[in-house]
Every structure is written in C-alpha cells, then in structure tokens.
Amino acid sequence: MTVLDTSTDQPTGPRSSGPQPLLGPERPDQATSGFQLEISKWFGFEAGHRLNGLPDGHKCGRAHGHSYQVEVRLTAQALTGPGFVTDFGELEPFATYIADHLDHRDLNAVLAVEPTSELLAVHLARWFLEHVEPAVPGRLVAVTVKETAKTSATCTVMRP
Description:
Layout: E1 3-5, E2 10-12, H1 28-31, E3 38-49, E4 64-75, H2 92-101, E5 105-106, H3 107-110, H4 117-131, E6 139-148, E7 151-156
Parallel strand pairs: 3-5
Antiparallel strand pairs: 1-2, 3-4, 4-6, 6-7
C-alpha cells in the first residue's frame, strides 16, 4: 500500500503497480480444503400441460402453460481446470434436450408421466444422470423446476 506523506505530498512505502493478488493457497485443492462447493445453472422453456385426476373445476385440470425455469445443482470432491466443479459449457447437452424435447410442447404428449413439477424434476434428474453426468466431473445434487415465480419442486439425488 502506498501512503502519502502529507508534509511533502510524496508517496512513502512500497509502490503498487496494480491490483495485488489475494493471499492464500495457490492451488484450487488447497483453497477449497474444508469446504463443499456447489454450482448451479438455470435453463428456461415454455410449455403447456393439464393435470388429470383433479376435482372438477380445478384450474390445473384445464390446458394451460408456464414459463418454466429449471435449475441444476452440481458438486464435486475436487475442482478441475482452473478451479471448476464443472465448466458451465459442459452442461449444453441438457440445454439442448430441453430445447428439442420440452420447449413449446404439450408436456402431456411428450412425457410418460403426469406433468407435475415434481415428476418433471424427477424426469429431468434421471435424464441428466444418464446423459450428462457421465461426461462431466461434477455430480448432480438436485434439479428444481419452477412453474411460477412463487412455486417450485426439487428432486434431490440420493446417493449411497
């Protein structure tokens, strides 16, 4: 840090040539010792559905749509590359699946289960575990599906 001597208006002490790095471990594995790290990424899509088996007059029994938001959360025992749980770019296959199979679709027509937020979260978690997780260093923690700004369902992966 440079200090200004007010009697001479001259700097005293060491001069800084720019921002100084934070003090601490140089390797990501040292920097994260004692911590569990998670990342999350959000994906969005528009889709319609109706829920069967509800009482007569229930609004969700009628065809309607949502601007869905899906969050995937991942963790890892060790960081890779410059210090990643998983590079966000490696999650692109999940974005592609959502765009190709769910976006602007009737979920009743494309899912083998009733299209509740809970069962959609389970479906997406299973798809992620089968198609994305084997190719990335991070491990899926949970998938959250939001139908509205105030409602969501989360499927947490249970591991032995």
